[in-house]
Description:
Blueprint lengths: L1 E4 L2 E6 L8 E5 L10 H7 L4 E5 L19 H13 L5 E6 L1 H12 L4 E7 L11 H8 L5 H11 L5 H11 L4 H13 L14 E6 L7 H7 L7 E5 L6 H4 L1 H19 L1
Amino acid sequence: MTQSRNGFRVTHTPATTAGSPTVLLIHGFLDDASVWDDVVDAVSGEVGAVRYDLPGFGGRGDSIAAAGGPTLPALAAEAAQVLAEIDGPVIVVGQSFGAQVAELLAARQQDRVRGLVLLTPVPLGGTRLPDEAVAPFAALGGDRVAQRRLRAEMSPDLSEEQLDRLTDVGAAATPRATAHYADLWNTGVPDGSAPSAYRGPVLIVAGNADAIVTEQLVDTISPRFSDPNVKVIDRGGHWLHVEYPGLVAAMILDFTDVVIGAMS
């Protein structure tokens, strides 16, 4: 079921059992809501799933100017509008820079967010790469060849079909959007290195073939949470939810079962 909320589309796949929890899925850089399709299929209706395109991506490819170059807090506020339309317990899942948005949302909505899942997460405080290192990411808008090459390097287990599909998804991103978001995730928020304001259960999933969100980087993220569950997918890259959707779905479901079980 797809509905229009606040001028953009929100897709809701209901659970097969009434009252089941819902996962709110927030995509990352260059992507749109469709990158979650295989994960949603793999959860097989055990939980509901809600996803949407962030400004500047997918069906909102032309909205980056109208949004005035959204900040991370503004993106979290938009996600809160989506969250407000979901009934029952919610697990928020964010991938890449979507993890920054997810954490900010969870911290602001602790009474609604029962658990937080961070997939190949960009640190809330930003990656803090030097200008020359972040410049290639900023320049990816409109460059299909460079986008495909980057994805292949950062997720070596992506199939040719998956690479083609992701390249098609990234084609909607303009140079303005990629430049804006590269600066956004590289800079992060000022207090992003402090202990997280979110006090609920946290699952962090990394891939040992990810060239940017390395296991060493994850080791700097996990201490910000009180008792995170950290998992590493062997050969998983930055887009491990596309490479290994069944495994990622199983991890999310196991985490959800533990979180909801603890509430009973």
